[in-house]
Amino acid sequence: xxxxxxxNPMVKMALEYGPIILFFVAYLRLKDRVxxxxxxxxxxxxxxxxxxxxILVAATGAIWALxxxxxxxxxxxxxxxxxxxxxxxxxxxxxxxxxxxTMIYAFFSGLLAFGLxxxxxxxxxxxxxxxxxxxxGWMLLTKRLMLFFFGMAIANELIWRMFSTEIWVxxxxxxxxxxxFAFFMTQGSLxxxxxxxxxxxxx
Length: 203
Prior knowledge:
This protein has two domains: about 90 residues, no CATH class; about 100 residues, no CATH class. It is mainly alpha-helical. It is globular and about 60 Å long.
């Protein structure tokens, strides 16, 4: 397996979060504008979505070029952004792009559930190098994350269907990220109970 090359953490963070921040800033600036392209009117949200797709693809490609590795979650995210974002732009309908987080979280929830039914933690394959845990810990964390992703999918559906586009953009930009951060912060006792200390003795 090819080893991931290390790059400046600030560069990696800029590539991972930069497209999302640019989407948010561009939306705030263009949300009330209407653009006529090829005789068809597009509101600011659709135009920003059209710009976001290649920016995200380019940023993900840059991560791959610099580190030699991208994880499955990043690949799935790019694919779903291209598919649902592309449908929103092509059909001039923002609903498809708003459904994208629902599809992402439902997909990962279903994937983790499938692994659990087979007695496996697919989460372990993705995150084992970052936080070594006993098998029982991986299974418990996977169950919790499966339920968390399912809840996030439901939350996204409720937000985009019941509230304005602007509220959904704030939720997507800050709410989803904060929820993921809060989830892992609340798993401290699990990491303490099932964590495995790395042997740095060189023996």
